[in-house]
Fold this sequence. Notes:
Elements: H1 5-43, H2 45-56, E1 57-62, E2 69-70, E3 76-88, H3 90-93, H4 96-106, H5 111-123, E4 130-136, H6 138-146, E5 154-163, E6 176-179, H7 182-186, E7 201-205, H8 206-210, H9 212-216, E8 220-226, E9 232-239, E10 247-249, H10 253-263, E11 268-274, E12 280-286, H11 292-296, H12 300-308, H13 317-320, H14 330-339, E13 349-351, E14 354-357, E15 360-363, E16 371-373, H15 375-380, H16 384-394, H17 396-405, H18 427-434, H19 440-447, H20 457-469, E17 478-481, E18 484-485, H21 498-513, E19 532-538, H22 545-550, E20 565-572, E21 579-585, H23 591-608, H24 622-635
Parallel strand pairs: 2-10
Antiparallel strand pairs: 1-8, 2-3, 3-4, 3-5, 6-7, 8-9, 10-17, 11-12, 11-21, 13-16, 14-15, 17-18, 19-20, 20-21
Helix pairs in contact: 10-23, 14-16, 14-17, 16-19
Amino acid sequence: MRHNPRDLEKSHTILTRRAMLLGGVQLAFVGALGLRMRYLQLEQADQFRLLAEENRINIRLIPPARGEIFDREGRVIAQNTPSYRIVIVPEDAGDVEQVITRLGQLIELDGEQLNRAMAEIKRSPPFLPVTVAEQVSWEDVSTVAVNAPALPGVAPEVGLTRKYPRGSDFAHVVGYVGPVSDFDLSKLENPDQLLRIPRFQIGKVGLEAKQEDQLRGKAGTKRVEVNAAGRVMRELDRREGEAGADIQLTVDAELQGYVQARLGEESASAVIMDTDTGDLLAIASAPTFDPNTFVRGISSSDYKALLDNTYRPLASKSVQGVYPPGSTFKMITAMAALEEGLIGPDDTVYCPGHVDVSGRRFHCWKRAGHGWVDLQSSLKESCDVYYYDLALKVGQDKIAAMCERFGLGVRHDVPMSAVARGLAPDRAWKRRVHGQEWLVGDTVNASIGQGFMLASPLQLAVMTARLATGRSVSPRLVKSINGVEQPSGAGQDMGLNENNLRKMRRAMYAVTNDRRGTGYGSRSIEEGYRIAGKTGTSQVRNITAAERASGVIRNEDLPWERRDHALFVNFAPADNPRIAVSVIVEHGGGGSTAAAPIARDITLQALYGGPPPLTAYPPKDRNRIEAQQERLRNVMPLADTEGSGRA
């Protein structure tokens, strides 16, 4: 069929237009694609290169070395030691159970730890190392290394762990560290990324916890190349972290060890404080425990034994325990009356053995009474009636105000766990807390450190230091951080009448150096080392009518937990005070028999800088003291001083 030339020309024109249109569209697409490629390859090259690097490079944290802790003489108290562990990489091991069986034939494996490791292997990626044995010896590391061909995927590693070379001596002061837990993280609003590292050690209690931020240090980083599965291929570079700050304490490790040994297995506590600086030279609670067992992971049975112990070895009694101060409080009642001008040193009160107040009879400890007593004789013989009379004159609010000036009812700023405020009540306190009005009988009870009054051994040491100096001495536990001296606790003048303070010091001197003094049996006879102190016995129970009728009211006739607390406070030397001491023996009975002998021994140990000569003791005591010193030398643990000893 012949086509009309005109039609052919028309068709060609249409095809040419379509081709040009299609070509234009294609050209536009290619051009747009080219522009996009130019934009991505040139203008966005840096951004996409960064994204690629981030997909390939991981930044990982390097744990810093924890700061170490030293005593005032530079002796190490808490240090870092190499910790060897054995790890296994499941994908390299092949048959994991078979390899672990071989490993168990070479070194001893803990069953509980091995079970944890197997559970971790099941939930972790196969290329991640899992710890199967911790705290292994160098011999075990060597054994694993020698047998490496037979143990595919198994390798020894080394890290740092905490060690307390002084054992139990500083358990209540320094505390201990342990692996970070979910509970630890829940207490922090913005936790440090270091705390996300598995088994990273942080302070749990004591100074380790309170100074965690200084001791922890800052993490280092390393850049590692990983493949698509997240397995590390190589390390590209590393920046080491900043080690934690070293902390030097005011405590003398040798004195602390002696005090712990002297307290023995009593449920007791003692504080020795420098009266010039406020430095805590020793601060001990008994019985104690070995903090190293917590670092390594204490067993359930051992922990239960500590919890169930009636003497509460986990409690830091020196700062956490609060007790009725008993007669050691009488100096505060007397100072309140003296400062108000309500009594003079020669004013006397008659003690018939009791006083009747608001229809209730308040007894003196000496039922027959002391007769006529003045300020010095009342303190020397610890007459209760004298202080009942003072309290009725001065009133509780002024006594409470004097408590605060002497550091009672005040939470002192020391970096230890659960530091107690104690209680120095006034009228407003009882109304606010109990919804009741203050009674006259409450004042009578408070005047001799009973009733609502509560104080810790630390607070009683502070009180004694302030009586000895007339300055607002405050306790200091941290001497320096990374060599930078911390503020002194020397304090300022309290603004008290110096004559009144002298009267109290003379009366306290009479307590331990006058034959009729309640502390005379625990005196020091060496000139220049005399002690001025005060005994105390605080009642922890109300005597029932049945007990009084049966005569069963002596401490030794009662169960231990119902016996009175024994207390003693002192400063020494009496003529030039250098230290203040407080001792509390829980349910120890009388302060003169249970607490005062301990206080004398640790006072002399502190003053002499070691075992005092027997000539410091009365002749009748010397044979017993000599035997005691020998026994204490045998029971005092020798410090494991392996490792750093710098300050």
